Amino acid sequence: MWVQKRVGMGVVEVLEEFLGKVKGSERAKELMNEWSKEMRERLWGKAAVVEQKGGDRR
């Protein structure tokens, strides 16, 4: 069981805290990163979200 103890938490904070308790902090980070990527793809399209390997190439 998970109980939200702080008032005024945003949706992302609630998800992070819940997943941290249920899945552990490392798995919670992975899930949040995947969720963020999915949301960016929906907003900007897949082509804009493709991550380059090796960092910024300016």
Provide the fold topology.
Layout: H1 11-23, H2 25-44, H3 46-49
Characterise this structure.
This protein is mostly helical and about 60 residues long. Helix content is about 65%, strand content about 0%. It contains three helices and no strands. The radius of gyration is 15 Å and the shape is elongated. The mean pLDDT is about 80.
Q: Can you tell me the overall shape?
A: elongated
The portion of residues forming beta strands comes to under 5%
Question: Radius of gyration in whole Å, from Cα?
Answer: 15 Å
| Global structural class | mainly alpha
The major pleated sheet works out as: none
Residues in helices, as a percent range: 55-70%
Order of helices and strands: HHH
Number of strands: 0
Parts with pLDDT < 50 across at least 5 consecutive residues: none
In angstroms, what separates the terminal alpha carbons?
48 Å
Instruction: Kindly report the average pLDDT value.
Output: 80
The total count of helices amounts to 3
